[in-house]
Amino acid sequence: MTDTVATKYSTRSTWCSDFRFWLLLLAIAQFVIWTVLPWLLAVSLPLDVVSDGLSWGHEWQWGYYKHPPLPSWTVEIFFDALGDVGPFLLSQVCIVATYVFVFLLGREMMPTRWAATGTLLLVGVYYFSIPTPEFNHNVAQMPVWAAACLCYFKAWKTGSLQWWLGLGFVAGLGLLAKYSTALLLVLMLVHFLSTRGLKRGLLSAGPWLAVAVCLLVISKHVLWLASNGFPTVHYAAARAGAATGLRDRLTAPVKFLAAQAIDIAPAVALAWIAGLRPALASPGRNEDMGFLLWMTFGPPLALAIGSLITGMGSRDMWGAPMWNLTGLVVVMSSTATWKYLSPKWLSVGLVALFTIGLAGFVLVNVLVPELENRPSRIQWPDRSIARTSSGVWRQQTDRPLKIVASDGWLAGLVAMRSVPRPSVWIDADYRKAPWITPEAIARDGVLLFWRVRPGQSQPKAFMAIKGIRILGEKSFVWPETPRAAPLMIGYAIVPPAGR
Fold first, then answer.
1. What is the number of helices (H) and of strands (E) in the chain?
2. What whole-number distance in Å separates Cα of residue 217 and Cα of residue 348?
3. Cα(197)–Cα(264) distance, rounded to whole angstroms?
4. Residues β-bridged to residue 472
5. Residue 396: what are its φ and ψ, rounded to 5°?
6. 276 CB contacts (<8 Å, ≥6 apart)?
7. What structural domains and CATH numbers belong to the chain?
8. Rg of the Cα trace of the chain?
9. Structure confidence by residue, pLDDT tens digits, 137-181
10. Nearest alpha-carbon partner for 218 in 68, 52, 60
11. pTM of the model as a whole
12. Whole-angstrom Cα distance, residue 98 to residue 146?
């Protein structure tokens, strides 16, 4: 934005430093409070951290049956270095990094105080609060999408090869985090060709450099996919589900978009209360505004249209990385009312929304489970289960426990709390845990366990294992909800060779 336009909407010079100061406070609060509070409240770690993070990351594979490997690697590093607080900190590193990239992008197209305000408004986006303590592939995508938008914007504007190089690298990281990053990249390609022309776009060296770098970054993972029969693709299709009729096909994308609208509504409401009035009547007059609109609303709309056409379902949390630019859209579309912005109401609203997010996390993960005697995932007696499991193994053999088998969650809890950490044989399925082989089972043995529920028998996959011995059941009291029915765990063993 030109200095003339920036000056036109300028106000007192202290506002600029104030807004940047608020942004610094937000980053500090996000780091400290959203890391420490969940860590203090958690007995065990969140579901995705254990089942899709530590159970996989400990094996250092180039791919896993559900997702690409980067988030599992990073959570393994943070857990090994910092213990339980590591995964919580990692999530907030991702969130604060997202703030930074959004702010840097905003400064490229608007005054600093506007960019800071647009970044601050992200406090009102659901994906920046309650879900963040559970580090997973959705959270991992958030800074990558923001960084990709920054790199692409600079490359699109300047044609600089270094920014195309940066885009290729970030795009590769994004695909190693989750394949839905491809949706953003396709939309970037469409935007580039539509704004720069098909011939000029295809003849530009920058995009081809970005593609080459991206392919280089993901090459090892692609080789892993090919050699393992592309399991992640099959999982994604099964996870998304498929519409069984016309009604489901129509309602699935509507529900997804409705959920996304609810998730970003507090940010828009905060801007409105603070005095900003978004008006999107003529986005075509400003190519920067067109860029923001395309990158913000393009991914969720494309996902919804794809769901409608193919009949595949969608998950609300898939929208997590899609709304990074929401605040910038609101601010840029409110230039006519910028002079009416009230710093007082903005700051009050930010504190209120930040506090509500924290309260929501405590309510959902601690208070409601305690009232309903329904323990949440962060309230499992993982240490007791691990100690008991180790004791069960030692009663049967003097060999070290190297392999445990259960679902990714329960086996992950035991492996996480065992020293040294054993490998997880997920569901006793070699396809889900290719690092486990029949030879390893025969040599090292395996401890198998499962949650015992009324009317349910032992898992069929376990009972089909040659040489299995059923050992019985153990009960465990829930640490934070002792009135809840005890947790019952069944045990079995395949003894090591020679035992």
1. 22, 5
2. 44
3. 33
4. 491
5. -100, -25
6. 330, 331, 334, 337, 338, 340, 341
7. 3-366 (no CATH), 380-494 (3.40.190)
8. 25
9. 999 999 999 999 999 999 999 999 999 999 999 999 999 999 999
10. 68
11. 0.92
12. 6
